[in-house]
Amino acid sequence: MKVHYETAGDGDVVVLSNSIGSNLRMWEPQVKPLTDNGFRVVRYDTRGHGQSPVPPGPYSIADLGRDVVELLDTLGVESAHFVGLSLGGMTGAWLGQHAASRIRSLALTFTSVKPGNVDMWTGRAKQVRAEGMATIAEGSIGRWFTPDWISANPELAEELRQMTATTPAEGYASCCEAIAGLDLTAGLGTITAPTLVISGADDAALPPSHGQVIADGIPGAKFAVIDHAAHLGSYQQAGKFTELLLEHLKGAR
Fold first, then answer.
1. Which of 13, 83, 86, 119 is 20 to 30 Å from the Cα of 206, by its Cα?
2. What is the CATH number of the domain that holds 71?
3. Domain AB hydrolase-1 spans what residues (predicted)?
4. Distance (Å, rounded) from C-alpha 225 to C-alpha 229?
5. Is residue 198 a contact partner of residue 109, using CB atoms and an 8 Å limit?
6. Is residue 128 part of a domain?
């Protein structure tokens, strides 16, 4: 399935994959630093999100991974660095296991390979199909950022809340179903791409213990925990996140 994407810059390709309930705009803080350092940035909207198609669900993580392979084919890119946050990181873990020849390096951030909470995810899917995205959007901001960041950045927090509120309900619900019951733990040892794992010290949704499992399972993976960062730490602590990411990408060139 052809997903919506945007590109910027020239050089080695870095694909950026969004969290559930967001779109490619969540990567705004990273685009200029990456292009300034000689990378070609490819941001895309996960299926069911942003301007990408919204096929009826449920979706699987394999569906999301194959969308990335198709995107690389569309762009004529043999292999790329892949950076995913939350659901995007789960997609990256699948790619590392099932499309290794297309992945030059992985950054799996604020994510998990076994999220758990199956009933919560299936319940959330039912909720948004029945009631829409407004309630979910309020809760997302509370998970994405710490209360002090929201207080200090009310306009930006509202802009990001709207990003979730305008996500298609069917797309969000179908991605909830991709997360429910997901377990990619067994294949971690087969991932050969140089991997950076990042977690947020204040991430209540997927705390650092989830990142530790990934880093322990992938041979040679590096693990970093960012202080004062909740679930959307790429935004809340954009400077530190981007610094870690650039160090990783340059080392994997």
1. 13
2. 3.40.50.1820
3. 13-234
4. 9
5. yes
6. no
